[in-house]
Amino acid sequence: MSLQYFDLVLSFTALFGLCAFLTLKARLHSALAPLAALGVTSIWFTLAGVADLLVAGGWVFYLAAWGLGIFALVTKRSQARRLLSPGAVVFWGLAVSFAVYFSIRQPMFHDFDEFSFWGPAAQMTSTTNHLYTICEYGTPWQATQNCGLIVLSYFVQFFGAFAPFKVYLAYDLLLFACIAALVGVIGFKYYRLALPMAVIGWCTPWFFTVYARTIFLEDTYMSAYGDVPAGMLAGGAVAMWIALRSEKGAGPRWAVLPVLALLANIKDNTFPIALIAAGCIAADAFLFDYKDRWKQGLARRFGFAVLCLAAPLAQYKIWSNYIAVLVQKNAESGGTGVTSLSPFGAALQGTKMLLGLSVPEEYAARQEQFYTAMANMWDAFFSSEKWTLSMIGPGVVVTALILLMFVIALVFAKGIRQRLRVLCWMGLTTLGFVAYSYVIALSYGFIFKDFQAEGLEDYSRYMDTYYIAWFLIAAAVLAWVVQTGRWRLLAQAGALAFACLMLVRVNMLVLPQMSVLGFSDATFADQYLIMEKVDAVKTQIDEGDRIFFVSQGDNGLLWFTYSCYFQPNILDYSGWEENKETGLYGAGGGSFCLPENMPSEDVEGAIYFHAYSTEDLAKAVAESGCEYIFVDKLDAGFVAGYGSLFTDGLAAAENGETLLYRITPDGYEPVAMEVPR
């Protein structure tokens, strides 16, 4: 095996060692051990990153995981059969299969946000051994998004070279662990139920993120976005808790705590989902975790319920304090500092606004935007014409399906106590849906821009996260009832039929050759050419050189893409300007034009052009601290407006003889090089 991929072997053995210790020594069921292990892994590396000790923390973690695994396997070798269960087979089978498949096919980043944050953040963390939050990336703003997934990627490729497919693999490990948790403590003799639950778990991300046949790559299991993992993890955490409660000896209850902490560290806008999942588990533990009398173990149950809520809150507090310090330092050094309204302030003032109470001026100014967002979200819930949310239709249909699953669980439930638990899950998750929808409405109303609220930008992506979590919780509750309730054979047959329907529907709407399972090499043809250009330029520059970017017509995507591949060279956020009225920075990228040629605002893409006179562009280049100008795309307007700044009038770039100009006091000189085509 190539040394390039040996880091995957090392990370898999460390993860297996930790799982073996949790199963054999901590007595956690083998189907639940991967999710707990990944939770512990992410929290450990997050703390190490916050302390800026990633390398030392990585070595400690790996040595501890290997040592604990060997210790458990040696001292409990007679119980090694406990490592084998349907859920464990699902996890390790999918994990190894995807590791081999991705190593062969080498998928790459390809979506906008993968290049604007998720990809570069993982790359910088892996290549610099520091959290991306303290790395320079050429932009004037502070990257503050949570790092729970990023550090999982760091763990997977700790000993090897960075590769995008390893990022996908790290995130998929988390998804597979959630599927294993959904299968739960079902044994091999109940394969008639274990198999359908595994299929339901596998289909769930497709079901809520892919809507129709397209000619584009449908990348559910090949995405670096955090939305699907957040939804799967919320459902997986609850499924894990239900499995821990469903069978004596399934494992210690505390194993769910690191999973809840990780859930709070995926994305800032999914933190409410972490609180909802933690609240559901806390309520179930407090109300129903007793044998005979309700007062039995009351203090213990209350204490555990508090811990369930404290785990995500503590993680949120640690990260918030860390980011607050960085933002303050960034502001003191000339960065942006805080540029949006507080989420908690938005919640308070938005609620006051709905109650007819007075609110501060900055919130009152967005009243119309807030009401517009709420009206649009209400329409989107019932309509599938503009906002398609699932393979079965709009939000109202998805909600009806999920509630129907809870009702079916009530029908098959055995005894009043089991029915009360089902009703508790049903009621709390429904209230959670209302609360999360309100949080999204607040975000559109007070945090996002007005055009984002009017068009409900990324609405499907935000809402799908909760639908995935809600659906998995309903499926886990139903699976628990099927194992312990009435008419089990009939219920198992129903679970199998439902799994088959999901599989058929996914197959109807997702072309295999356009999915993660069968993408062609041509899918990444543009990325290959960009990488060749970057490699050609890097042969002409030093590692510490900074580069000014020119790409006419770029909407920012090419800047983000090239920035990712140019690392550790910094691609300057060429052309950014500060809006004196809002304090926010304008669009970056590399599109320029003379002020008299500036497109009108109604022209598509006009926002990405920067109106610079010839003198202003020369001043911007000089102040950027760049040593070179990278010319990706030219148009007649750029050549006519700024050609005089280049010693050859941009002739070499127009003739395809160079991509690079050296910045000198006498002008920008072309650098002789081979230009990939």
UniProtKB/TrEMBL annotation:
Its keywords, alphabetically, are: Membrane, Transmembrane, Transmembrane helix
Q: Which domain of life is it from?
A: Bacteria
Ranges annotated as spanning the membrane = 6-24, 31-50, 56-74, 83-104, 169-188, 194-212, 224-244, 302-319, 391-413, 425-446, 466-482, 489-511
Name of the featured protein:
Uncharacterized protein
Its source organism is Allofournierella massiliensis
